[in-house]
Amino acid sequence: MREGSPENFELRWRSRFERFGRSYDSDALIAGWSASGLAARLRAFETLFDGAQQGEWLDVGCGAGTYVRALLGRGVERVYGLDYSVPSLEKAKAMTSGDAAVWLAGDARRLPFRAATFAGVLCFGVTQALADCEALVNELVRVTRPEGEIWIDGLNRGCALHAGEVLMQRLRQQPLRVRYENAEGLRQLLLTAGCVNARIDWVPIFPRKLQRLQAVSDWMQLGKMPGIGRVMSHAFLIHARKGPAPASP
Ligand SMILES: C[S@@+](CC[C@H](N)C(=O)[O-])C[C@H]1O[C@@H](n2cnc3c(N)ncnc32)[C@H](O)[C@@H]1O
Fold first, then answer.
1. Domain span at residue 47?
2. Cβ atoms within 10 Å, residue 248
3. How far is the CA of 52 from the centre of ligand 1 (A)?
4. Percent residues over pLDDT 90 in the chain
5. Who wins on pLDDT, 170 or 11?
6. C-alpha span between 155 and 64 (Å, rounded)
7. Confidence of residue 145 (pLDDT cuts 50, 70, 90)
8. Which of 50, 75, 98 has its CA nearest to residue 201?
9. Of all protein residues, whose CA lies closest to atom 16 belonging to ligand 1?
């Protein structure tokens, strides 16, 4: 397998996540985020999330279960957390009380569920560790029931800082550590797979040392500023709705 091949990129991430799951006890570190980064992401989701649809939910790439617990805290009765890292799932289980969460080992691109099972599906922090997202998006949409919702995020390829980093890595002929995602391209994949109303929100995330800037950016709602949000935001979040069931003939 070539050093910079897509398979190698994905395998390296998988073994990194398994190591994080074995080595750490905080949900941020198990996911590979900083504590402030995870807090900013969770805040962005909770600000946009306006109440869960009735029914079961699925969190794909759940890591230590941060969003599973967030959904349970919002009144969802049952949430399935799926991840390919078994050590992370073990930590998730230990961190979650009650029996409303179900933990499953599996691959995000081959979900072990029937079509149209879930009222809502989340997939956060996964796209950057995959060589491409088409199979993932098709699976997320497949297992969502008609008119159900899908939430997915990515590291923003349009961020000025990331564009500079990609250019430097190309010039130095270094392999990419993470894959930055074209938000509009991901939105189009969701629409092609059967979603409607897919909406992008930009999520500015500042490093731990610049938390004052994070507070200012949250207060100013930097991510919502036309033109600025896209180039200043480290990440983005897409909220999509699956289309209605086809009418019977
Ligand atoms: C960056 S962490 C994010 C964890 C959590 N969703 C969050 O946002 O805090 C990505 C998680 O996705 C899992 N993951 C990545 N690719 C996956 C795949 N193809 N199938 C299943 N899980 C995957 C990793 O093991 C890891 O736990």
1. 6-242
2. 4
3. 22
4. 71
5. 11
6. 20
7. very high
8. 50
9. 126
- Mutate which of 7, 33, 83, 238 for ligand 1? The one with the most ligand atoms within 8 Å of its CB, which is 83
Residue at 247 is within a domain: no
Cβ atoms of 152 and 190 within 8 Å: the answer is yes
DSSP annotation string for 125-192: S-GGGSS-SHHHHHHHHHHEEEEEEEEEEEEBTT-HHHHHHHHHHHHTTPPPSS--B-HHHHHHHHHH
Dmax over CA atoms of the chain, in Å, equals: 60
Ligand 1 pocket at CB < 6 A: 17, 31-32, 38, 61-63, 66-67, 83-85, 88, 107-109, 124-126, 129
Q: In this structure, are residues 223 and 233 in contact, taking their beta carbons and an 8 Å threshold? A: yes
Smallest CA-to-CA distance from 57 within 71, 47, 70, 74 is with 71
CA of residue 189 to ligand 1 center, whole Å: 20
What's the total number of domains in the chain? 1
CATH code, domain carrying 78 = 3.40.50.150
Q: Rounded to the nearest whole angstrom, what is the distance from the C-alpha of residue 62 to the centroid of ligand 1?
A: 6
* AA identity, residue 109: R
Residue 207 is which amino acid? P
> Cα(124) to centroid of ligand 1, in Å?
7
